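Summarise what follows for lecture notes:
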Amino acid sequence: MEKLKLLLMTLLIGYASTSWGQAKVSGVVTDGQNVPIPGVNVIIKGTSNGAATDFDGKFQLNAKSGDVLTFSFIGFITQELTYNGQKSLNVKLEEDAAQLDEVVVIGYGSVKRTDLTGAVASLSAGDLTERKKTDIGQAVKGQVAGVDVRSLSNKPGAPLNIRIRGNTAITNNVAGRDGLSDDPTDDRSKPLYVVDGVFFEDINILNPADIQQMDILKDASATAIYGSRGSNGVVIITTKNGIEGKTVFTYETTLGVSTVANEPDYFNGDEYVSFVGDVIRSEEWGKLFTTGVGTVADYNNIDISSLIGNEIQVSNEEANNVANRRYTNWIKDYQKTGIQKTHNLGMSGGSNGLVYSASLGYLSDEGVIGIEAFERYNLSASLSKKVTDNFTAGVKAYLAYSEREEGSRELYRSTQRLPPTVNSRDTDGNLILTPDDQDSRFLNPYYDANGAWTVNTKSMNVIANIFLNYKPTEWVDFKTQFSPNIRNARFGEYRGLLTKSSRNEASRIRAYYDTSFDTSYTWDNIANFNFDVAEGHNLKATLISSVYYYQRETSNIQTRDFDTDAYLFYNTESNNNDIRNADTEYEKESLTSFAGRLNYSILDKYLFTFTGRYDGSSKLAVGNKWAFFPSAAFAWKVSEEDFIQNADWLNNLKLRLSYGEAGNDTTVSAYDSLAFLSNTDYVFGGNYTSGVVVDGLNNYDLTWERSKEYNVGLDLGILDNRIRLGLELYSKTTVGSILDRTLSPITGFAIATGNYGSVRNRGVEVTLNTVNIKTEDFSWKTSFNFAKNNNEILDLEGELDLIPYGNHGVLQVGEAVDATYALEKIGIWQLDEIAEAAVYDRIPGEYKFKDQDNDGDIDNDDRRVIGQVSPDWTGGMTNTFTYKNFDFSIMAYTRQGSFGHSEFNSLSVPWQGDDAKLNKVDADYWTPNNPDAKNPALEYGADTSWYYTDFDFVRIGNIGMGYQFSDAILDKLKMSSLRVTLDVQNPFTFTDYYGSDPETGLQNNYNGGYLTKTVLFGLKLSY
């Protein structure tokens, strides 16, 4: 018994000494800017004991003196620290340039970046929020090679156009005098957006603060898992999830002011009067060539005093204003300062396998003219529960509500075009309804600026992802997820009595009221397998079945002739005398898919990926709905080979090669393969009656467009990964392109839709990231990207190689799908070319066009491709500097080689030819005294169609500064993080384009808006 007591006492003393030797250790882990890092693994080396940092970067665990603590997190260098009895530890992790953004979402799964075989670019939450952009598209601009983001309008809340590796659809939205469509859904080359597993249309409604990561799949191997849906590239957006630990609250806010940037240089009062005089001289001098020729002396001797009264009116005090140099600055009078503000509140936490997060966001963005404004509310929530060791269930939900007020579609250009010599108010201070007697179309902009014309859109989007995950063993798991999406939108427009549209005539007042209700869902069933086949051989497999369903209901009505403006568009019943449109529509479509992906790794050096997807689309013809799309990729980690291990300067070298095929059915609507019946009236047996006729042709052969793409890639890291280079070379050919063909009238039908063409995109993409300087207190990093794409039509079926469309476009074999088709300008006729110009019925000062067929006449047969709308190349560069807790960055991007028709020029250049009724931009023009001008003579020199121009620019997109408060201050404030920022967005644009923004220059400046410069102050904190 005594021996037993002694043994128990010895064990107790030993246990107590072990327990007494341990202590509870706490601390915080931050990055190089003292920002807390959540999710860092803190492990006692050699054991399985550890913890993870919470949202504040804090951790707590039991350790004893002498234990080695290991701190590891993706994107940072693993750090070890020996515990010597400290009660609190402050650990700072350094970024590992080779491992940044290591985990990449590739669709139905994720891989380490080092194991990628395809062309994939990633943006982190910091990349998307660093410049405080209000929408995701703006945040992506200039950051990713091969991804071209272009604004369609500068009004608040306007959509964007996003392209990945050029145009793949032959039929696109470049048609007519209005340039490109402002509706991004018209773009048939847009990529697929996937938000938390939900196929999505309008990413403009997402709050960048809610995004955890964006992964952009560019080549066919990377996109193949999405089959036909991914033929134009895939943008995968992952919203934020909760992090297990105590509940943490974050708050971020910005407040800014927006002003007009890059304002067009219109004539001021004195310049306009001089311009009017030059218009008269040019007109009179041009008339001399009807009976003879004009000379420089003739031009200088023209007396305009007796003619200027035709332009400078007496009836509206214009002549008196000119005499007294009393002018109206219409542009400045209607500009204002817009206020932009955001609020984002978030929370995250969890314990015992239950993890949750939620966020609430608000954006208010006022325009700089009229009543333009945009408001957006975002609400997100996620909840997941590890029910057992093998079973997890969860749900994510995202709600966005927005209201966009575009205001008047005429205010922007009306204030630019009204001459500075006319008045806004009479001598008694009353508003003048039509300030300019010469053009009664222009009513006083005051009414438009104050809401006489309103264009209002409200939309509600709800997306969700409900999933169940079962993992019976370590090497296999099964997941089913259901992802619904509901969108309800209302569009209302009212053009009141005192607008340019109505012109003070009640019968011209109009109201539009449109509604749409879209519902869709995706149901995916996924099986993942991951096991070692043999030593050094690993196999990962993913099997998928997927169903996508979409339906849309719409209604619209247009009525005119109101006796009051009180109802706006809310009471169309108040007028039943003039109903122009009243219609409802319904459509639906579905897509069923089966897919598989194999990833095979040998010695972690030779990586193989094989993907196949079998898609069936309801939109295609019976018998042609199903198709199989395969892909394969190989990557070789050269830097892992023994023969190169002695190259200390080389940290990473990987070569990649891939081939893939993808289908596309987005170029057709739900029922394009079918013929329809439409109503018509006719005379039958002497009676006028109504009936139906066949409208359109069946196409029983309508099938998938198929894109075939090769991609060669290189990833390189040298000098401790201070220099990282990414290079992509690709060639993508799309066959069976779907477009409309014009039919002979003898058929009784206008067009037929079918697989009638082929197009190819080839290009190069370069990404370069460098750490130029790195010391203990100071660093300088540069990120650069460049992309060049060549687009070419290879074939147009039916012995056609040239199909003009719209006013400025053409489909022509050997040219881009968005080629600009017009006469080729080769100069301006000069005074020493009078005889030669007369052959073409031209006189000095007019454009000189090339006579392509040498027939002595300039006509439509002389039109040629003179450029293309898509840029020849794009690029972006960001420089980031840090000094202790301060940081500074500057971002620039460019689009070069875009050429097309400018609606702005057709209305606002001096040689436009409207008898000087309207104001113009201050651009040089030809006169006998100024023969070296690059633009033609006034009035007679105008060509009614030739207003083509380059839209090249270089823009400083953002200049930002920030300060992260130190730990000492945070401890006093009882905060885990506090950061203040100052950003200046779009401060400088360098361009030869005459308008406000070359990026939107392809759009009609009807419904146009100014490029804005925004100065934003920001605050971000967490508890």
Notes: The first helix runs from residue 2 to 21.
